[in-house]
């Protein structure tokens, strides 16, 4: 190991990381667990992260966040994590609080390098900074790729958002660059026209992701479909019921779409009057009965509703609204709900995670990725070091 790598190894410890030699993220299972294939289509009642080998023709969708902007411990803001049997992974939105649930899955962060924004509300992009820096700390040694819509003006688009955010935490990035892989600090933004209809925004490794407009607050919201290996997942983002979703979500195995609280449940939840609650629930979002109408038109293999806090009374209000207009397969998503999808079956379970899960071990590729010069305080700041403490000597590696 050269001098730069010796120094970097010491700095990893200071930044809260442990180098794991030749261990890779792929085999960094918790002690006492081993990964095995699902046999004969029979799944355990609960999903324990990294203990199941995803089938080569299988898709797994995990709800990282399903709640509101005023998140709760059990319902953080919106994010869905999609894993494919070819090894690819994708994030759709990364709302405030969602990265905590992502880290509890202990993924291979070298692969968690693609996120698709539906729009720029904080409950859909609020954990962007945590994803960028946290993933970089935990194994990603390449740029984070962000895909998202333009806005009606340049400053309201995805590119402006990412540039502004990265300036806001420039100090953080500057301190870590050199100790962590240089490329991991970078951001690669693909901004596309929010009005394009079912056009391709991503196509690699036999995966095709398309976007179409959504109707929400201002211009600049979109929905997505992901197609791979004959399977189709649709992510609605936030939207009023619209013709594009009804048309382009057809053929979905999993069609996810917000099923917001109805006005009479939303008003007491937020302490609003009925006028404000009705406007938000039925003009800005999609209330449950409207969600049901959309799903009756789309006819997916499974309808997936989200964007609420499913307390007992809220759950009942949403379920009754949906079932008044839709009688097909339905899941009202909760955080850390896991959906395995094959051409033969759809299995819905809950993930069982450790509240104190450690980050996964990093790969040799991460350890050996190029790093520039380490940063340190100026001499005038270092002159303030207290002479009552002497740090231990640095190890060789």
UniProtKB/TrEMBL annotation:
Domain Metallo-beta-lactamase stretches: 76-264
Comp. bias (Basic and acidic residues): 371-385
Signal sequence residues: 1-25
Region (Disordered): 364-397
Keywords: Hydrolase, Signal
InterPro entries linked: Metallo-B-lactamas (IPR001279), RibonucZ/Hydroxyglut_hydro (IPR036866)
UniProt EC number: 3.1.-.-
Gene Ontology MF: a single term: 3'-tRNA processing endoribonuclease activity
Protein's name in the database: Ribonuclease BN
Naturally occurring in which organism (per UniProt): Ruegeria arenilitoris
Gene: rbn
């Amino acid at each position: 190991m050269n001098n730069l790598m010796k120094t970097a190894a010491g700095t990893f410890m200071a930044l809260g990381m442990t180098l794991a030699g030749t261990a890779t993220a792929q085999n960094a299972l918790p002690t006492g667990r081993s990964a095995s294939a699902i046999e004969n289509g029979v799944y355990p009642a609960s999903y324990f992260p990294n203990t199941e080998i995803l089938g080569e023709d299988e898709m797994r969708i995990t709800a990282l966040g399903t709640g509101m902007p005023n998140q709760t411990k059990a319902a953080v803001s919106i994010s869905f994590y999609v894993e494919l049997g070819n090894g690819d992974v994708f994030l759709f939105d990364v709302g405030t609080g969602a990265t905590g649930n992502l880290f509890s899955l202990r993924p291979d962060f070298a692969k968690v390098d693609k996120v698709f924004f539906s729009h720029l509300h904080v409950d859909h992009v609020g954990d962007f900074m945590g994803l960028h820096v946290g993933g970089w700390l935990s194994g990603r040694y390449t740029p984070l790729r962000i895909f998202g819509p333009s806005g009606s003006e340049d400053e309201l688009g995805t590119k402006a958002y990412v540039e502004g955010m990265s300036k806001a935490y420039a100090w953080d990035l500057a301190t870590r660059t050199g100790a962590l892989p240089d490329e991991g600090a970078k951001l690669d933004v693909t901004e596309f026209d929010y009005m394009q209809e079912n056009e391709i925004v991503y196509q690699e490794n036999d995966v095709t992701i398309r976007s179409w407009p959504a109707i929400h607050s201002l211009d600049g919201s979109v929905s997505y479909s992901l197609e791979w290996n004959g399977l189709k997942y649709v992510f609605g983002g936030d939207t009023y019921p619209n013709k594009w979703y009804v048309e382009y979500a057809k053929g979905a195995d999993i069609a996810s779409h917000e099923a917001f609280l109805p006005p009479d449940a939303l008003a007491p939840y937020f302490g609003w009057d009925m006028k404000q609650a009705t406007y938000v629930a039925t003009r800005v979002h999609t209330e449950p009965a409207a969600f049901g109408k959309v799903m009756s038109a789309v006819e997916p293999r499974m309808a997936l509703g989200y964007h609420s806090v499913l307390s007992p009374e809220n759950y009942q209000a949403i379920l009754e609204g949906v079932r008044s207009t839709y009688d097909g397969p339905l899941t009202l998503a909760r955080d850390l709900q896991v959906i395995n999808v094959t051409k033969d079956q759809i299995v819905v379970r809950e993930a069982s995670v450790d509240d104190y899960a450690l980050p996964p071990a990093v790969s040799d590729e991460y350890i050996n990725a190029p790093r520039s010069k380490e940063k340190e305080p100026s001499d005038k700041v270092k002159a303030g070091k207290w002479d009552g403490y002497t740090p231990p000597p640095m190890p060789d590696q």
